[in-house]
Structures are given as structure tokens and as C-alpha cells.
Amino acid sequence: MAGEPQADCLFCKIVSGEVPATVVRETDTTVAFRDINPQAPTHVLVIPKVHYSDAASLAAAEPQVTADVLREAGGVAADEKLDETGYRVVFNTGSGAGQTVFHAHAHVLGGRGLNWPPG
Ligand code: AMP
Ligand code: ZN
């Protein structure tokens, strides 16, 4: 059922604790943890605890949780002192855009120069 944990989903396993992660923030609805293959000095993923394949599907079903994810992305940026220097929040959507884990997640990237447009 939509939103339910998926047995084969890596990020559902991080939510349940079955797969370890370096968690930096957690709320009733979200978990934020360091990316295992960081692309910037700060690279944190913020995920909803509920399973949806991408950000748009999450937003359609759970607008409040989507807001929680974005608020927590801002919280990560503040914790990491990125809110003054600037940071980027990215939702890769679809394999053509580089999405590899099909559980919605926000990348929070900062601590270095960030080119625009991204590659
Ligand atoms: P995406 O390519 O947008 O789907 O992002 C998935 C991200 O998850 C990538 O940046 C990976 O480096 C990251 N990742 C994969 N496995 C883990 C893990 N076990 N713990 C933390 N991050 C992970
Ligand atoms: Zn999942």
C-alpha cells in the first residue's frame, strides 16, 4: 500500500534501523543522515519515514510530510552553518536524472562552490 515500508527499499531499512546510517536529525516523520558517497563537504539526505518513490508522489499524498522534509533540509543547513553561505536542495527524479534509490529524498549539499546550472 502507498506509504507502507517496502521490503526491498534501502531507505526503508535505514528508517527501521536494519541498515545503519550516520543520523544527524530525526523527527516523527523524517530522518536526516550523511550520504555514504558525499559530493560536497556537507552532503546529507533528508527522507520521509513513509515510502514514496519520489518527491512528487510524496507531495501528492503527504503534503505535510513534504513540508517536514523541506523544513528539516533547512535545519540541516543551519546545523552545518550553510544558511549564510548558501546550499542546494536537490530531488533527483527518475533514473535519467540520476535517481538510484526510489524512496523520496532531498539531498542537502554545501560547503563548497556550487555551479549553476548543475550537470
Ligand atoms: P539518488 O542517486 O538521488 O537516488 O541518491 C541516492 C543517494 O543515496 C546517493 O547519493 C548515494 O550515495 C546514497 N546512498 C546509497 N546508499 C547509502 C547508504 N547506505 N547510506 C547513506 N547514503 C547512501
Ligand atoms: Zn522506502
Automatic annotation (TrEMBL):
Coiled-coil stretches noted in the UniProt entry, renumbered to this chain: none
UniProt domain HIT: residue ranges: 10-119
Bilayer-crossing regions: none
Signal peptide: none
Motif (Histidine triad motif): 103-107
CDD domains: PKCI_related (cd01276)
Superkingdom: Bacteria
Sample GO molecular function, one term: catalytic activity
SUPFAM superfamilies associated with the record: HIT-like
Active-site residues, record numbering mapped to chain: H105
Pfam families xrefs: HIT
Protein name, per record: Histidine triad nucleotide-binding protein
Species whose genome carries this gene: Streptomyces malaysiensis subsp. samsunensis
Lineage, opening ranks: Bacteria, Bacillati, Actinomycetota, Actinomycetes, Kitasatosporales
